[in-house]
Amino acid sequence: MSKKRDIAIIGIGMTKFGELFNQSYDDLVRDAATLAIKDAGIAMEDIQAAWLSTAFPEIGVFKGRSGMDLCEPLNLYDIPVTRVSNFCASGADAIRNAANALAAGECDVAMALGVEKLRDRTPQDSIVKMMVELTHPFYQKGFTAAGTFAVYANRIMHEYGVTKEDIANISVKNHYHGTLNDKAHHRIACTLEQVLASPMVADPLTVMDSCPTTDGAACVIMLRAEDVNKTKHRPVYIDGIGLSIATGWDLPFFDTKHDFLSFKATQNAAKMAYSQAGITKPIDEIDLVEVHDCFSIVELLTYEDLGLCKPGEAKDMIRGKATQLGGQIPVNVSGGLLSCGHPVGATGVRMVVEVASHLRGDAGERQVIGAKKGITHNIGGPGAIASVIVLNIEN
Amino acid sequence: MSKKRDIAIIGIGMTKFGELFNQSYDDLVRDAATLAIKDAGIAMEDIQAAWLSTAFPEIGVFKGRSGMDLCEPLNLYDIPVTRVSNFCASGADAIRNAANALAAGECDVAMALGVEKLRDRTPQDSIVKMMVELTHPFYQKGFTAAGTFAVYANRIMHEYGVTKEDIANISVKNHYHGTLNDKAHHRIACTLEQVLASPMVADPLTVMDSCPTTDGAACVIMLRAEDVNKTKHRPVYIDGIGLSIATGWDLPFFDTKHDFLSFKATQNAAKMAYSQAGITKPIDEIDLVEVHDCFSIVELLTYEDLGLCKPGEAKDMIRGKATQLGGQIPVNVSGGLLSCGHPVGATGVRMVVEVASHLRGDAGERQVIGAKKGITHNIGGPGAIASVIVLNIEN
Question: What is the dihedral of CA B116, B120, B123, B124, to 10 degrees?
Fold first, then answer.
């Protein structure tokens, strides 16, 4: 597919992200959807189809295994609702399948909603341990998310002269951005020294290089671009959506040609999305970016995989503050996953809400002035599945 | 959406359904996909996008939580793969989202694959108990699947003069059909007396009114109808796909107007699919049907919900053998879920494979002679989510 997506987002909404012990899964669905519906200026019964993204029912509150868990809190029945899950790309994939349904003419008004409640554990605390034991030998070999991404961190330090400080400065930047976002889980600025001195998780990644475990929900309302009523709506357009699965669990570790300096999944997803959106020089055409900084190193690697700079030059972007608010191409002005936290099924949708709010000029004190085009990026699996969405205030 | 879907199925494949202890989840994916690819006369690398349906990773082998679990066994990378789950309608929903992507032009060749491995339990046998405890108060009130559908059975017996024998004769019919299907889990004919005398599960439903727990996988390869090369392919066309969620977990039991004689989800899904396919008199236009006989009573109710007869007349269809092989409108000539078993994520795709094989004239000794149009039906949740797909040998 190389044609433009031609989909409009006419409503956005999200809950606060954080430790939301006083709100159930259903509460989060209702709050995010109600805000998006209100923002769109439509009624709940105008929704003709919906896609629900929850990645991990089994390690949270056992909700989100079917579309029913969207219908029930919204009292929204007699329509098709699909639950999608694709690890960290789940939210973007809900948006992608909704966009396909709109383009196919299956529906005229679609909802994509991501929600995850990870802080409430089930009575059996052993469920996480059980999941880790059962899910795949991958974990049994020590390849946790942090462990995997640490291998990449060590390689990029060795090959490209990246320093621990460069990686930690991603965390400093995003925590500063997070202080400007009242929906973020953590709103605490930190210093380089604090990041480096925080407890080690997987060398060189410390606790402060790692995103927190978080509850939250986000929602978007979508139309075909041709159906936008410009006197009524404040549309943001989706020009491109890319998704790619590039490896299995073990593949990178058994592929003797893999250099551990890039994620092919991100490169593939960007290529797919850019091709649809007609983007050829991302650094010149894109005004802001939300990337999947589950660990600070992932943001650094992603500058290169998204084509924002050449291989080996990501360190110069962070050293030159190009990706800080006010810089050439601000990245994660929301605070990123490092500040917002990572309710897995919600994160991809949260990023689209963030970028859309900038394109509409609604982002308050963290507004990227004059932003017209932005992208969102997710990667999970870890490193296997990636998504890229291109948003544009113009059609 | 009221226009025809205009999607073609050019390849079908499925594994044997049963207790497949000697085959892993990956083996099942590989076997079903390889058969479908071979049937389509294409290569694995021709697949441009895929949808994976697995409903219950957490009660089986913890696989199918993302698209990666399709990519890895097929060595099929660098494409988008979405995992969908929607309880018993999961397989149909994978086909639906693939059809949307084709119609949207996102891809030109799509795979929809359903797989479930339920017989291998995890080391902790308590996982099922845990799920039952955790998933919803619904189960804590005794509303298991059998318990819920038994309420419907009692109501239809009371209101419409349906007898226990009518319900049991569904099981007799489908077990007979199952003897003709070498892919079925159970291939044992049974008598009315055997069904009635088998152990009671939830009065009036006995063990032989209930489908077994089963492993299996099924796969279809899809194109836009306009892309079919008739000298190369043996296409079956998808004219309509309906999906609807009509209730929540508790809703039917708190809705004082609900009569427990029909499933609104099925009625909605049929209306959506028939509208797309231009079907106005299903009994005259449809030649064979695969319905979701997880319990025999569900097939009986579904005759009415699909519009094959008027309310109260389903018993006449079974008494007159209209739905037996050779009758006016054969239902579940595969043996249904009662014989094939119910690997949940695979069942919807298995039904499409079954109907397509009849439309192509490939169904061997259970062939419905001259079949040109057929439908598949799923319902789960239980009773909340339904899907209907209309297949046609002509375009």
Answer: 60
Do A300 and A194 form a contact (C-beta atoms < 8 A)? Answer: no
**Interface membership of B229 toward A (CB under 8 Å):** no
CB pairs under 8 A between A and B: 176
Q: Looking at the DSSP assignment, which residues form a beta bridge with residue B241?
A: B389
Shortest CA gap A199–chain B (Å): 31
Please state, as a whole number, how many other Cβ atoms lie within 10 Å of the Cβ of residue A112: 29
Q: What is the pLDDT of residue A2?
A: 80
Residue A202 β-bridge partners? A205
- Backbone CA torsion sign across B310, B312, B317, B323: positive
First to last CA, chain B: 18
Nearest CA to CA, how far is B209 from chain A (Å)? 26
Look at residue B121 and tell me whether its pLDDT is greater than 80. no
Residue B130 has pLDDT above 60, yes or no: no
Residue tagged 């797309």 (tokens):
B276
Q: Which residue in B has a C-alpha nearest to residue A71's C-alpha?
A: B248
For B158-181, the pLDDT digits (tens) are 999 999 999 999 999 999 999 999
Q: Residue B194 and residue B365: Cα distance in Å, rounded? A: 25
CA A348/CA A92 separation, integer angstroms: 5
CA of residue B381 relative to chain centroid, distance: 13
A349 has a pLDDT exceeding 60: yes
Active site residue B342: yes
From the list A1, A72, A268, the residue facing B106 with the nearest CB is A1
Closest CB to A3 among B66, B105, B243:
B105
Q: Over the stretch B197-254, which tens digit does the pLDDT of each residue have?
A: 999 999 999 999 999 999 999 999 999 999 999 889 899 999 999 999 999 877 666 7
Determine the distance in angstroms separating the CA of B187 from the nearest CA of chain A, rounded to an integer.
Answer: 32
A58 vs B55: CB contact, 8 Å cut-off? no
- Secondary structure of chain B: what % helix, strand, coil (to 5)? 40, 20, 40
B105/A1 Cβ within 8 A: yes
CA–CA separation, A28 and A31 (whole Å): 5
Query: Which pLDDT score is estimated for A125?
Result: 47
CA angle A34-A36-A38, nearest 5°? Answer: 70
Confidence of residue A141 (pLDDT cuts 50, 70, 90): low
- Could you report the predicted ipTM of this complex, rounded to two decimals? 0.97
Domains of chain B: 7-124+215-227 (3.40.47.10), 129-210+238-392 (3.40.47.10)
Q: Using alpha carbons only, what angle is made at residue A337 by residues A332 and A340, rounded to the nearest 5 degrees?
A: 95
**pLDDT interval class at A122 (50, 70, 90):** low
User: Is B88 an active-site residue?
Assistant: yes
Question: What is the DSSP secondary structure assignment for residue A18, as one 8-state letter?
Answer: B
pLDDT at A128 over 70: no
Pairing label, strands B385-392, B373-380: antiparallel
Cβ–Cβ under 8 Å, residues B362 and B233: no
Of the residues A186, A342, A358, A377, only one is catalytic, namely: A342
